[in-house]
């Protein structure tokens, strides 16, 4: 029988994290982000970390908290978006950023968790994604200090494809609606975005779950073999979900 993977607190789940560690982090915008684990990671005081996530949170929320504190050294993402501090640090040369197409990022995480070292995709062929030259880091004056190298491109059946490397990280932080003591997880609606993929890519995956329960095997989205530690949220923590954009109309 699988062992019990529940730990008492988020702090205990991250007690072995050290400076310079790499993290795959689930979520899309603020949807499905492991906010309790991110706050616990902030409280550890670790710095110089690398983050792989669709985006880097928002100003003052999600991974944006770590970013504003200067804890993140490198980000692999598909979107800088509306996080002004993220854009400022990137353009000022304070952080290294690898931008990658969103679908390629998802597949790089999945491949890493599946033991596939690399794969070919048509996404990015004929652009700096494949040809190189994307700014990874800027000088403070805005000029390019480090650019991405060219990637291998091959032709299959008359179409060109670029080779993308898989991603694995030291840790993965994810959030699930339901989980059991063995680490099996169920994600709710749009929160089932990058969470399963990030969980697969981490060597040590920590999941915060809104509800600890027994799961029918047929409802499991991510099997517990990918999850090392489970943190059960309080009702208050489970209900605390940010809204990235609030749109209202007259009653």
TrEMBL record:
Q: Which SUPFAM superfamilies match?
A: NagB/RpiA/CoA transferase-like (SSF100950)
The record ties this protein, via Pfam families, to: CoA_trans
Q: Which UniProt keywords apply?
A: Transferase
Q: Does the keyword Transferase apply?
A: yes
SMART domains attached here?
CoA_trans
What GO terms are given for molecular function?
Answer: CoA-transferase activity
User: Which Gene3D superfamilies does the record associate with it?
Assistant: Glutaconate Coenzyme A-transferase
Query: Which NCBIfam families does the record match to this protein?
Result: pcaI_scoA_fam (TIGR02429)
Output the PANTHER family linked to this UniProt entry.
Answer: ACETATE COA-TRANSFERASE SUBUNIT ALPHA, KETOACID-COENZYME A TRANSFERASE
Annotated family:
Belongs to the 3-oxoacid CoA-transferase subunit A family.
Protein name as catalogued = 3-oxoacid CoA-transferase subunit A
Q: Which organism is it from?
A: Nonomuraea pusilla
């Amino acid at each position: 029988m699988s062992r019990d993977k529940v730990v008492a607190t988020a702090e205990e789940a991250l007690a072995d994290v050290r400076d310079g560690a790499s993290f795959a982090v689930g979520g899309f915008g603020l949807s499905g982000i492991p906010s309790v684990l991110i706050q616990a990671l902030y409280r550890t005081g670790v710095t110089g970390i690398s983050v792989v996530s669709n985006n880097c949170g928002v100003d003052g929320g999600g991974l944006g908290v770590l970013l504003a504190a200067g804890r993140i050294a490198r980000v692999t993402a598909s979107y800088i978006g509306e996080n002004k501090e993220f854009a400022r640090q990137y353009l000022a040369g304070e952080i290294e950023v690898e931008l990658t197409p969103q679908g390629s990022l998802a597949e790089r995480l999945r491949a890493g968790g599946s033991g596939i070292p690399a794969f070919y995709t048509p996404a990015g062929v004929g652009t700096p994604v494949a040809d190189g030259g994307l700014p990874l880091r800027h000088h403070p004056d805005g000029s390019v200090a480090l650019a991405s190298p060219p990637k291998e491109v091959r032709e299959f059946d008359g179409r060109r494809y670029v080779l993308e490397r898989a991603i694995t990280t030291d840790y993965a932080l994810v959030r699930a609606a339901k989980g059991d003591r063995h680490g099996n997880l169920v994600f709710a609606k749009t929160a089932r975005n990058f969470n399963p993929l990030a969980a697969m890519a981490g060597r040590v995956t920590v999941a915060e779950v809104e509800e600890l329960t027994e799961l029918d095997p047929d409802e499991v989205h991510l099997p517990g073999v990918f999850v090392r530690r489970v943190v059960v949220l309080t009702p208050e923590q489970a209900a605390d979900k940010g809204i990235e954009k609030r749109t209202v109309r007259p009653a």
